Amino acid sequence: MTTQFGVTPRPTDDRPGAGVARGGTEPLRIASVPSTHVYVRHLRPPEGPSPFVHLPDPDPDHPSRPATSKWWPPVMLRPEWAATADFDVFHVQFGFDACSPQDLERLVEVLRERGKPLVLTAHDLRNPHHPTRELHDEQLGVLVRAADAVVTLTEGAAAEIRRRWGREALVVPHPHVVELDTMARLRRERAGRPTDEFRVGVHIKSLRESMDPFPVLRVLDETLAELPGGVLQVNGHHDVLDAEGARREPVLAAWLEERAAHGRVDLRVHDFLPDAQLWEYLASLDVAVLPYRFGTHSGWLEACRDLGTTVVAPTCGHYADQGPVLSYGFDESHFDAESLRAAIRFAHAARPDHGVSVQERRAQRVAVAQAHARLYRELLS
Question: Where do the record's region annotations for Disordered lie (predicted)?
Answer without folding.
Answer: 1-26
